[in-house]
Amino acid sequence: MHYAFDEDQDTYAHEVRKFAVKTLAPHYQSDDKAAEFRRQLALDMAAMGLTGLRIPEEYGGQEATAVIAGIAAEEVGREDFNAGYLIINTALISDIIVRNATDEQKAAWLPGIASGETIPCICITEPGHGTDAASLELKATPSADATGWTLHGEKTSITLGMASDRAVVLARTGGPGARGVSAFWVDLHHPSVSRSAFDDLGSRAIGRASLHFDGTPVSRADLIGEEGAGFVSVMQGFDYSRAIIGLLCIGAAQASLDEAIQWARDREAFGAPIGTFQGVSFPLAEAATYLKGARHVCFEALWRKDTDQEHSAEAAMAKFWAPKLAADVIHQCLLTIGHIGYSSEHKVGQRLRDVIGLEIGDGTAQVSKLVISRNLLGRKYAP
Hints:
4-stranded antiparallel sheet, 10 strands, flavin adenine dinucleotide binding, Acyl-CoA_Oxase/DH_mid-dom, AcylCo_DH/oxidase_C, flavoprotein
């Protein structure tokens, strides 16, 4: 068994960290205060190859492994958690397109994602359907000339919804259940699409939004894969992206832990560094231990993806454990740093607000545990 990155992976992690420190970190807090997504962020990340990680080289991407995408997410998460959403979205959506689209569609869609000119999002959640996504109601009505459909309905809680140019939209083209759902690549600048932003606790820079489709036209050229196969093709991608999410959260937690450790060295009380007191040092030791364990789970899921092995359970473990752990660790780091950490001038409070969002988004802990329990017990013996 080998528990270390190889030389190329180590070098890549180092380069991404340098980029994140220089280019991303200076905007982390100001973007949150502005509560607005900067288009330049996508271009900067594209120049570093971070928006084309899972895109084949022939379409302008890096054709990177899943492990490399995980490394990128963790390093970016250390410096600008919200910039990591671009890695999550572009990697997940690119993966869906690469697996299901035609060659003509790939050539038309993927280069813009890789270059940062097209910011994509994925539209699944609806006001009445979040976890039970197979019951979605947004309707794709066949057009009169049978050349396509029009979309009618609302999607909500859409990450990068205010900023995105295109979206993978799941819509009902057939009967009830998953087999009645198709996936479309939709132009969000069409006048029939309207958007409304959320005023969120954290991750304010990503522009979470509701999107309303009032007769939005889509053609057969916009259909991703086969009609009625959209739900399955899209959901398969989440097994991979959930481990990326875990590493993004771990990056933010590790940055906070590093700051708390330095604080425990520098701050003195009763004539000694506060790290000499067990009440301070032991929680930090526990945090380091748990983060190391969660990191291994995330990278095992990605390694399994790269080696074509089943990884649903490991991805689910990463998704429910890492965001919760990150919130717990960052909270403890804030307490360790004390009143300075409670100020909005310090990044630790913003990281805490931000990671909480991924305890909800892209699958709740309850759903992840359901996946794990079915893997452990077998479908017949599990909930």
